[in-house]
Amino acid sequence: MASDIHTLSDSLLWKRFLEGDSSAYSQIYNQTVQELFRYGLLYTSDRELVKDCIHDVFVKIYTNRAKLTPTDNIIAYLMVALKNTCLLYTSDAADEL
Questions:
Q1: Residue 72 has what DSSP assignment?
Q2: In the chain, N or C: fewer CB atoms in 10 Å?
Q3: What is the largest CA-CA distance in the chain?
Q4: Mean pLDDT of the residues in the chain
């Protein structure tokens, strides 16, 4: 069933991810990572920090997938998570100064 993973709607792809389908998780990453990277650059010009934030978002959603709610718009869901993560990282960095 993984062969049709590219044609699933966001809600079905997310549902499969929530059920533990690793191919759905990979597909979500592959189809969103570039857009998330560009979006993260709106919050910091530090490209490595954006990469770290994206990594943290994906680790967090994977770890907490049993607690996550359904969504019809994966990219919007991940953008909110990325924005919050970037803001947390940048505010933590400012606190250290």
A1: S
A2: C
A3: 51
A4: 91
